[in-house]
């Protein structure tokens, strides 16, 4: 009921696209709101529980590294953020394909709400990496292929977030952002394989390797729990933002409809 | 339906073109994308003495000599190796905490006329192994690994090893 109500008003909002398709366009966000509304409490609870357990395990209970000492604990934040930066960007590219090929409005909204969160994860990855690099490598920053490609990834996230908001017509912004996101996807394999293709100061992958992980299980397991916890939190934040954006559009559509009615009344 | 398929095809074609262009560009700039040269690269390329570049490799076991320079600053001489080739490096300044024999390092500096490398900066480059101190000690005691000689043994041989020396499960 609720979903259909806005579906009608949404269609009357000033959207310069072919009519007829409009109803279909806003049918899905209603279903999305209902489904995620039930999911959200569980998602938040799972995120906080898993993340809390992972952080206590990683930051307190797990052993130090034989040569890095306690500094290695930065990894429990740094590595999940790096995975989310890359995985999230792959998700952004998938949303962009849905947006460009199937013109899915929910994909546009999710992409728009995803990029600031992805940018935050990438910024945290860079910041924790810098804090880790100073005591271990002896430098905050070097222009090696891994660090530079992650910085490019950060700028792509920021660029997407800015571009989709730079147009008066949100649909044109979404189109431009989707193209930027898809052009930027070439950077993701470069980030991932930079440490294998070129000499870098950054060490190669420890977990995602063809042979056994180069990490003791007492360090690996808390890392995986942290990664799951941060991923759940990331998903919860993005979904909550997307829900808020859908509701914001509904409110705007309702206000527009009312303004039209009031304008039309005296005539 | 056909319009959606056409848009998908256009995307796939554009992706293919973009991917090819990126791959070609990266291959063309291959030499500029390496952060450091290995001793073998240096011996093959012979960079001119006036050009600063980065030399990277492992610190050879038994090669580190630490002295205090006349002005009181610490100074060190060590050999950087990649297996087949070795270059002697001299450096004045404080070495990073992780610096040790068998550790990866990346040094910035210039080649000297005598073929040695005068570094103005030394960065430590740790490898991708993470292990608790107890496990590293156990490997060393059992003679499976001497960190000064280089990388740890294959991960599968230690990454589930118990942490307590008496064999109780380490978790």
Automatic annotation (TrEMBL), chain B:
UniProt lists the family membership as follows:
Belongs to the CcmE/CycJ family.
Signal sequence, renumbered to the chain: 1-23
The places in or outside the cell where this protein is found are: Cell membrane; Membrane
Q: What does this protein do?
A: Heme chaperone required for the biogenesis of c-type cytochromes. Transiently binds heme delivered by CcmC and transfers the heme to apo-cytochromes in a process facilitated by CcmF and CcmH.
The uppermost taxa in this organism's lineage are: Bacteria, Pseudomonadati, Pseudomonadota, Alphaproteobacteria, Acetobacterales
**Which parts of this chain are annotated as the region Disordered?**
145-171
Keywords carried by this UniProt record: Cell membrane, Cytochrome c-type biogenesis, Heme, Iron, Membrane, Metal-binding, Signal, Signal-anchor, Transmembrane, Transmembrane helix
The record gives the membrane topology as: Single-pass type II membrane protein
Q: Which residues lie on this side of the membrane: Cytoplasmic?
A: 1-7
Q: Which gene encodes it?
A: ccmE
Q: In the record, what terms sit under GO molecular function?
A: heme binding; metal ion binding
What is the protein name stated in its UniProt record?
Answer: Cytochrome c-type biogenesis protein CcmE
- Entry binding sites for heme: 126, 130
GO cellular component term, pick one = plasma membrane
Q: Does the keyword Iron apply?
A: yes
The segments annotated as topological domain Extracellular are: 29-171
Q: Which GO terms describe its biological process?
A: cytochrome complex assembly; protein-heme linkage
Chief localisation class: membrane
Q: Which domain of life is it from?
A: Bacteria
Does the keyword Repeat belong to this entry? no
């Amino acid at each position: 009921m609720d979903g259909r109500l806005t579906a009608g008003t949404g269609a009357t909002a000033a959207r310069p696209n072919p009519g007829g398709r409009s109803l279909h366009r806003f049918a899905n966000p209603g279903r999305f709101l209902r489904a995620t509304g039930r999911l959200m409490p569980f998602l938040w609870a799972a995120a906080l529980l898993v993340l809390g357990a992972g952080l206590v395990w990683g930051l307190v209970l797990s052993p130090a590294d034989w040569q890095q000492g306690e500094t290695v604990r930065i990894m429990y934040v740094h590595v999940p953020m790096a995975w989310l930066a890359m995985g999230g960007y792959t998700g952004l590219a998938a949303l962009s394909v849905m947006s460009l090929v199937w013109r899915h409005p929910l994909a546009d909204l999710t992409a728009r709400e995803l990029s600031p969160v992805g940018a935050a994860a990438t910024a945290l990855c860079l910041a924790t990496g810098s804090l880790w690099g100073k005591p271990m490598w002896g430098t905050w920053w070097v222009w090696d292929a891994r660090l530079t490609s992650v910085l490019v990834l950060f700028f792509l996230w920021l660029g997407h977030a800015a571009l989709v908001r730079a147009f008066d017509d949100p649909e044109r912004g979404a189109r431009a952002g989707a193209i930027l996101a898809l052009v930027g996807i070439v950077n993701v394999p470069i980030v991932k394989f930079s440490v294998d293709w070129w000499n870098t100061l950054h060490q190669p992958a420890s977990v995602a390797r063809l042979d056994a992980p180069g990490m003791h299980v007492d360090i690996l397991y808390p890392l995986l729990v942290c990664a799951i916890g941060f991923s759940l939190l990331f998903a919860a934040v993005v979904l909550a933002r997307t829900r808020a954006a859908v509701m914001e559009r509904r409110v705007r559509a309702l206000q527009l409809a009312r303004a039209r009615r009031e304008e039309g009344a005296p005539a | 339906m056909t319009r959606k398929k056409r848009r998908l095809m256009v995307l796939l074609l554009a992706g293919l073109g973009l991917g090819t262009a990126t791959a070609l560009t990266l291959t063309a700039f291959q030499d500029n994308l390496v952060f450091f040269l290995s001793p073998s690269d240096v011996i093959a390329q012979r960079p001119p003495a006036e050009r600063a570049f980065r030399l990277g490799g492992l610190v050879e076991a038994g090669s580190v000599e630490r002295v205090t320079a006349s002005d009181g600053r610490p100074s060190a001489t060590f050999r950087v190796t990649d297996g087949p080739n070795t270059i002697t490096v001299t450096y004045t300044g404080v070495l990073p905490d992780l610096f040790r024999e068998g550790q990866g390092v990346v040094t910035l500096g210039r080649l000297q006329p005598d073929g040695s490398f005068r570094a103005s900066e030394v960065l430590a480059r740790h490898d991708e192994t993470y292990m608790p101190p107890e496990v590293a000690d156990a490997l060393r005691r059992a003679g499976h690994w001497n960190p000064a000689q280089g990388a740890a043994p294959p991960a599968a041989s230690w990454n589930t090893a118990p942490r307590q020396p008496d064999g109780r499960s380490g978790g």
